[in-house]
Design brief:
Layout (H helix, E strand, L loop, with lengths): L2 H13 L3 H16 L8 E3 L13 H9 L3 E8 L4 E6 L6 E3 L5 E3 L12 E4 L3 E2 L5 E2 L5 H8 L5 E5 L20 E3 L3
Parallel strand pairs: 1-2, 1-6, 6-9, 9-10
Antiparallel strand pairs: 2-3, 4-5, 7-8
């Protein structure tokens, strides 16, 4: 299937998840994340969940990494060039929802993309080759292309991968790992 079709289908599927399903799926995702070895990781980039799109709640993941002494990094969107800027998320960092419904830090210290060791990537669906479908602006593909060699990338999704996304492009970046509920 094409990305545009997959985007419509999986936005709707995510919207239709019940609170019970979402909670059950998230608990499975969290446990799989918490069981991974992060000893060689210092700086973790996480997306802040967009409630309007029923995204995975990343706050428990943020709390886990903070408790384990990792530096948390989140992004701000630049809609003029579809790029991301990255900021240290401290406990006192203020978050504001931008005009597109994206939560962003507003009083945070900027962090160079080269400092990031691990990126958790949002998605609507992925395929068995670890390519993903996002919301269609390419923010994360540009961001991941700028990461240093060896930066680990993990996609988080409520749904298992499909066989193949038909219209991947040379600028699409496959992820190292996709975590879905067991």
């Amino acid at each position: 299937m094409l990305k545009s079709d997959l985007r419509k289908i999986y936005k709707q599927k995510r919207k239709e998840l019940t609170e019970v399903e979402k909670t059950k799926f998230q608990e499975s995702l969290y446990q799989q994340i918490f069981d991974l070895d992060f000893n060689d990781i210092s700086n973790v980039h996480l997306f802040l969940s967009m409630r309007k799109f029923n995204e995975i709640d990343t706050q428990p993941i943020i709390d886990f990494f903070r408790k384990n002494g990792k530096k948390i990094i989140v992004s701000q969107c630049n809609f003029h060039d579809d790029s991301l800027s990255h900021f240290h998320l401290k406990e006192d960092t203020k978050i504001a929802i931008n005009k597109f419904g994206v939560p962003e830090p507003i009083n945070a210290e900027e962090v160079a993309v080269t400092k990031i060791d691990l990126v958790f990537v949002p998605m609507l669906i992925s395929d068995k080759q670890n390519y993903r479908v996002g919301y269609g602006k390419g923010f994360y593909d540009r961001f991941l292309a700028d990461c240093k060699k060896g930066t680990k990338t993990i996609g988080l999704n409520f749904f298992p991968p499909i066989k193949k996304i038909e219209d991947t492009h040379e600028f699409d970046v496959p992820l190292n790992q996709i975590i879905v509920p067991k």
